[in-house]
User: Fold this.
Amino acid sequence: MTLHLDFDIARDNFMLTVNLDVANGEVLALTGPNGSGKTTTLHAIAGLLPCSRGVISFNDVIFDTNASTTSVFLQPEQRKVGVVFQDGALFPHLNALQNVAYGLRARAVTKSDAIDRAHKMLATLKIDHMADSSLHQLSGGQKQRVALARTLITQPDILLLDEPTTGLDQESRQDTVRLLDEIFATFTGPVLLVSHQHDDISSLTRSIVQITVERTAKQATSTLHR
Amino acid sequence: MTHRSRSLSSPRGFLIIAVTCAILIALPLVALIIRVPWTNFWSSLSSDAATTALFLSARTSLISTSLAVITGLPLAWLLAHRNFPYIAVVRALCVLPMVLPPVVGGVALLYAFGTKGLIGSALDNWWGIRLGFTQIAAILAQYFVAVPFFIVVMESAFQQFDQRLAQAARTLGAGPWHTFVTVTLPVVRPALIAGVVLTWARALGEFGATITFAGNTPGRTQTLPLAIYTAFESGDDQALVLSFIMMAVSFVVLVLLRQHWISALKRGGQ
Assistant:
């Protein structure tokens, strides 16, 4: 029962090769220089971009494969992959509660039920007092909690986090790391975490892989494997 | 004691040139307002010809603007977010009517939808449908000249739209349509309003393509600008009254919606 990644993403002058398995319950951190393909890797798993070759599968369900014999590409909404984007990417036209309820409403949960569950999720993340706030009233750390709540409420099978502590002040960072630690302890699926903050990573997980990049004048080749 | 201006100085001469520019815009409008025959304003306005043209313009411009919105949104979205063959050609074609003289647009529309036109002859032969010189022709003429404004505004808005918001919606379980309606459109709302207003204003003011393709039949294709032209040709004061009405309506709508944009922008911002 694992997330199986064995794929390439080829662009004009960029080539990313990923080859690794992440077990259920494992928290794997990806590090590497800017532009090495960390976010691209998360996007490929979430279905936000197709791979050029290879296979992405989870517990024998093929998310994406592009081979001569078969071609599969599950849309993001068919994958149950939760993504916490860098800076949250919260919906600016919705308040904190509506942001969290969004995923339930998208899956046709009734409005009252969605609001109920969104309040409970916000309470779990100790941010329910800000439920009716618009985004500009929230601090960086509070936005990060809302973003986590918005993703977790959809009960994803896989959790992907892109730079969850970047851009936060020292106090919110420690706060977020403690919170992530609690979330990871109960999350049963694979977790992939992209981060620059080595202190934060090392207090969250021991499994860390580094993307290596080889650059020539014409092409950058990134490789990600254990 | 003299006070030197306590602000950063502007390039020398800018103020005088800017004032000249503003006067050149305002002067003709002021001249028109001065000449409006206020004594028989209401009688001119409530005449049959005037009310007919008013209602015709209101109806046709609303229909053509709605068509522009419904058809322009998907095109603008695809131009902004997808790459396809000849996209540069499609983009150039879409904005061509903006720079084309409207009368040329009218001639082109005749050769497309007129009874001897590319599509028009088939419509006539197979179903007996004749579009030329009908109210549908007036709507098509307005659509042709106005839809580029909507496409240009919306393509730019979709390009500036933070794609991660749509991506987040998709990973949360929303399909492409749900994402478009519940995330993309609300976030680009200020641009949407601006685009609709610009498009509607262009459709309302349309003259050249309409008179060429739809003709100047009172009650059927004689929209406000055409009625103004006809009245002006015959030296009728009604031209001034109708011109003033068009000016006032445009002004009021712009001012009202300007407030709307500002508040929408504030809400949409971080």
